[in-house]
Amino acid sequence: MPNKMERFSHGARRILSLAQQEAETMQHTQIGTEHLLIGLLRHETGIAARVLHDLDVDLKRVQDLALRLSSFSTRDPNAPLELSHGTKQVLELSVDEARKLGHQEIGTEHLLLGIVRQTEGTAIHILNRLDISPEVVRNQIVNAMKTGATPRAEAPAEGISFPPHGKQMERFTQRARRVLSLAQEEAERLQHSYIGTEHLLLGLMREETGVAGRVLRDLGLEQRRVEELVERMTRAYKRTSDTQFDLSPGTKKVLELAVDEARRMGHHYIGTEHLLLGLVRQTEGVAIDVLKRLGISPEEIRRQTRRVLQESPVQSASQGTGISKAQQPALDIPLHFTITLNEKAPIEFTLTSKQFYEVYMHTLLALQKGTLGTLYEETKAGIRIMITRADTGEADKTPTTDEQ
């Protein structure tokens, strides 16, 4: 159902990713309805999770029941994971539920409604064990949507223009962009009419794999405590249903400062660490007030960020590609390259191992950002190195420094 999948919200797609993680953790051969149910519970900002929490469904209890009731055998770690027949049916039913409700987007609530429309499957058996009927779930979802938890709460940040624009925005890493999306989710959850620095702070904490998330955890910050402080300090900022989202002046300033932080550090990308450093360069705003209440100073954050980057200097640049600090060249060893193209005379040149690593990282980042044309171009000792995608005829130069 490729065309239909495009209609699934950011939150709903996240559920499918979480369901896969659960199936892998349990070493099951397929992604079943039980894994979907666990994914719905783990995605705490979704409508489905709020409904299940309101019904006192406990994540740990569901995971225990899933392990006990699942019929899937233990799989070979190298074997591909597939969707079970029941999960495929749930996805089809969720599309039908969205159609019945007149919704263009398919969110977590539609996935949950699809699960409870089944009469068989591990997920429905788990809910039966917990004495939760399909009718109770349906009623709770209807009530949640009536009280303002509309499907829009799970939409990705498509309608908001995040400055800086153009080529600078292309330099934001996958994790940094996810933080911006999570910030919008937080603003939606709190029913605010703007995306403020406090929402950015919450987004940085929720993106646990980023440098900023690690820094904040290392300093003892707890997600729940930060959420409580934000809610208490912004209680008067509730929005009306027809209010459009906008970035607060403070958030716009943080994004500009993040670009400046990357430039100062000589980084060609803008990651979660730069967003965090931009955040603490401000002297006003809810985020900085929250950090002060928790006894954390900007200097502590800057110091801890430097420490984390020194321990794992390629974490942000590699963006989850599996490159570790140990894989970086420790010695600057000369490497001799010979390239023969179409039986012509061979091209010979020398690069040190560190130069080669730099070429590799630039190319990797360009590919991850979807850059077309030239991925890397540089001249060293009279030798012009140019890496170009083979699937495009374009040859636009990709910036390799902040000034470019």
Describe this structure in words.
The chain has three domains: 2-152, Double Clp-N motif; 166-318, Double Clp-N motif (Orthogonal Bundle), CATH 1.10.1780; 334-388, no CATH class. It is mostly helical. The two termini are 42 Å apart. It has 20 helices and six strands. Helix 2 crosses helix 3, helix 4 (47-54) packs across helix 9 (134-146) and helix 12 (197-206) runs antiparallel to helix 14 (223-233). The chain has helices spanning 2-5, 10-25, 33-42, 47-54, 59-69, 85-101, 108-116, 122-129, 134-146, 166-170, 174-189, 197-206, 211-218, 223-233, 249-265, 272-280, 286-293, 298-311, 315-318, 353-368; strands at residues 30-31, 82-83, 334-339, 347-352, 374-380, 383-388. Residues 148-159, 313-329 and 391-404 have low confidence and may be disordered. 35% of the residues are buried. Strands 1-2 form a two-stranded parallel ribbon. The chain has a two-stranded antiparallel sheet with strand order 3-4. Strand 5 and strand 6 (383-388) form a beta hairpin. The chain is 53% helix and 7% strand.
Concise synopsis of the structure shown:
The chain has 404 residues and is mostly helical.
Primary descriptors:
20 helices, 53% helix, 3 domains, mainly alpha, two-stranded antiparallel ribbon, Double Clp-N motif, two-stranded parallel ribbon, single chain, 404 residues
